[in-house]
Amino acid sequence: MQKHLHIVAFDVPYPPDYGGVIDVFYKLKVLHQAGFKLHLHCFQYGRAKAPELTHFCESVNYYPRNQKNWKALFSLQPFTVYTRQSKTLEDNLLQDNYPILFEVLHTCYLLNDERFKTRITFFRHSNIEHHYYKHLALAEKNWIKKIYLRLEAIKLKRFEPVVTNASAILAVNENDTVYFQKKYPNLKTYFLPSFHEHDAVNIELKTQATPYLLYHGNLSISENYQAVLWLVNQVFNRLPAIKIIIAGKNPPAFLQQALSNYSHITVFANPNSSEMEMLIAQAKVHVLYTQQATGLKLKLLNVLFKGQYIISNPLMLHGTVFKNAQPSTGLIVATTPDDYVTHITHCFNTAFDETLISKRQQLMESSRTSCITQTFVQVYSTFQSSL
After folding, report:
1. Which of 9, 8, 29, 5 is nearest to 20 (CA)?
2. Whole-angstrom Cα distance, residue 10 to residue 28?
3. Are 317 and 301 in contact (CB under 8 A)?
4. CATH pick for 212-365 out of 3.90.230.10, 3.40.50.2000, 3.90.1170.30, 3.40.50.1000
5. pLDDT for 259-304, tens place per residue?
6. What are φ and ψ of residue 373, in 5° steps?
7. Which long-range contacts link 150-153 to residues 24+ away (Cβ below 8 Å)?
8. What strands lie across the sheet with 265-269, from one edge to the other?
9. Whole-number Cα distances in Å, 132 to 67, 149, 150, 375
10. pTM summary value
11. Residue 33's pLDDT band (boundaries 50, 70, 90)?
C-alpha cells in the first residue's frame, strides 16, 4: 500500500539554513527514502522556488504569503496564521483523501474547517508559540516590534486550541509533549524529535594553529543577539587570550558595534553553508546559551553530531534527551558565568579524543535520523490502518 502525505510548510524549506526549515527539509528527504509519496505545499515570502525539492516530492506547490495585508494586524487571528491562508491550497488538499501534516501552528487555520475534520491530520509542533513570542517580546529592543510580538503571543495562545481538531500532535521535545498531553488529554501526542541530516557522529580531531571558540545562530533574532550580549558581558570579556568567533545571519549594527570593542572577538556575518560547516567542524569549543526553553534548538543537535567540546546552559538542554549528559561525552553544563569561564578554559587545555567520540556516539544513538524516521512511520501507520 502506497504511503501518501500532504505536507503544508510555513516557508520554502530550501536551503535548509535555519531551524524550522531544517526539520521540514530533512523530513522530506528521509520520508522519501522510506517510500512516502510526498505532496509539498509551501508558503513563499523572500525565498525562491526550489527545484531541489522535486527530488523528494511527487508535487510541489507554492502559495504567496501576503505580509503586506495590513488587515492581518487587526485580525483576531495571529498575523502569522492570517497571512498563510490560500483558497488554492484548500482546493489542492481536497483533491484526495491523503493524510495532511501541518508544519507548526502558523499553518493550522484549516483545522477549523469542517471539510477537513474527517481527514487524518497531524500538527507538527516546533515551539509553544505563545511562550516563544512572549520571550521574543521581552528581548526585543524596538518598541514597535515589541508591541507586535506581545499582541501576537496573546493571539497565538487564543488560537492554539485549534490543534484539538487534529488527529495527533507530533511534539519536538519531551517537556512540550507533556504540556500538550496535560492541556489536551483527549488528543494523542507523540514525542518526535526534529529531523536533521545526521545518522552518525562525525567529529574532526585535527587541531587548528589557533584554536577558537564558536557561538553561532541567526543573529537577527532577539533571542540570539541577547544571548550573545549576555555571553560577551558575563563570560567572553573575561577570556581575552581565547580567539572567539560569533557567526550567523544578519547581525544588527548595534551588536557588531558592541563586539568591535573586543580584539579577541570576530563577527562572521552571513556565512554560507560550507563556511558554517567548516566553522562548526574546526571549533575547539562550542558555547550555547538561551534564556528560554522552547522547542528544540537544532544548533544543539548539529554540534552534538559534528562538534568537539560543547558548553551549554541548562535551558538549552531543557526537554531534550541530553539533559543528564555527562562531561565524558564532551557536553558540559554551565549554570553561571564562572562555570562558563572555568569549563571553557579547561576545554582549551584538554585534547578532544576518540574516547569522547565513542561516548558521544552512545549519547546520540536515539537521535539518529533513522530512529526518528521509524517513529514517524509507526505513527502514520497507526492512523492509516484505522481508515
Report:
1. 9
2. 14
3. no
4. 3.40.50.2000
5. 999 999 999 999 988 999 999 999 999 999 998 766 567 888 899 9
6. -60, -45
7. 152/78, 152/79, 152/80, 153/129
8. 265-269, 243-248, 212-216, 285-288, 309-312, 331-333
9. 20, 9, 10, 26
10. 0.89
11. very high
Cell numbers of 320, please?
Answer: 531534550
At 201-229, the pLDDT tens digits run 999 987 777 899 999 998 988 889 999 99
**What are the extents of the domains in the chain?**
3-196+368-384, 212-365
pLDDT in the model for residue 26? 95
CA angle, 173 as apex, 298 and 25 as ends, to 5°? 45
d(CA 171, CA 188): 10
Domain 3-196+368-384 and domain 212-365 have a common topology: yes
| Whether the predicted pLDDT of 244 surpasses 70 | yes
pLDDT digits (tens, 9 = 90+) for 172-190: 988 899 999 999 999 999 9
DSSP letter for each residue of 54-77: GGT-SEEEEEE--TT-GGGGGSSS
What is the model's pLDDT at position 66? Answer: 83
What phi and psi, each to the nearest 5 degrees, are found at residue 315? Answer: -65, -30
pLDDT of the residue at 139: 81
d(CA 82, CA 137): 20
Q: Domain 3-196+368-384, what architecture?
A: 3-Layer(aba) Sandwich (3.40)
Cis link prior to 15 (omega < 30° from 0)?
Answer: yes
* Segment 92-111 mean pLDDT: 97
Q: How many CB atoms lie within 10 A of CB 230?
A: 16
In whole angstroms, give the CA distance from residue 130 to residue 159.
9
Helix (H) or strand (E) segment spanning residue 81: helix 79-82
Cα–Cα dist 106/23, whole Å: 15
Of 46-50, 141-145, 163-167, 310-314, the poorest mean pLDDT is in 141-145
Q: Cβ distance 155 to 77 under 8 Å?
A: yes
Minimal CA–CA distance to 172: which of 367, 377, 384, 387? 367
